[in-house]
Amino acid sequence: MRVPSIAETEKLINEAEKLNPGLWIAHSKTAGICARTIAEKTDSLNPDVAYSLGVLHDIGRRYGITDMRHIIDGYKFMLSMGYDDCARICLTHSFPCKEIQSYNGNNDCVDDDYKFILNFLQTTEYDDYDRLIQLCDAISFPDGPTYIEKRLVDVVLRRGFNDYTIQKWKAFLGLKDYFDKITQTDIYKILGL
Question: Which H helix or E strand runs over 103?
């Protein structure tokens, strides 16, 4: 897979913190730890790859405070470094259901970028890394892992509710069930909740 090493991942997130400090850094690190911890309990996912993908899923925020634009900024940044698989996660992590209008927040993308994201979602078949990072994004607070329901309510309180929110919540809950089956246990137990 085309993903940065652990050392490069740490370097990239530390550089990003200097450019745009905020709670998103700790959230991203939590997502990485959750992804590695869950991947360790599977037969098919590489824990180091999962960690890097989790830590860097929001790397587009390095450019400043943005909404939907952070996903395309992260995609372009990772692609420019040759990390295609990490770039992919930057786009897919916000869409457990492949509906661009399900994004919680504002569309601050230019029209061409919006159309690119829309096409990417329609033509990309998710794999277990996409699913894992979507899940870990949904269970990661800056101070550690949490229950999906608690994080989903937090996001809605901060960013609002839209016509796709319930569909998106069901998709997140489905991801938890999916990884419970793959790991043959409750992922909350794996994460110490």
Answer: none
Neighbours of 66 (CB within 10 A): 17
3-state secondary structure at position 140:
strand
User: What pTM value is reported for the model?
Assistant: 0.94
- Kindly give the confidence (pLDDT) of every residue in the chain, 193 residues in length, as a single tens digit, with 9 standing for 90 and above: 899 999 999 999 999 999 999 999 999 999 999 999 999 999 999 999 999 999 999 999 999 999 999 999 999 999 999 999 999 999 999 999 998 888 877 899 999 999 999 999 999 999 999 999 999 999 999 999 999 999 889 988 887 778 888 898 999 999 999 999 999 999 999 999 9
Sign of the Cα pseudo-torsion (179, 58, 139, 101, in order): negative
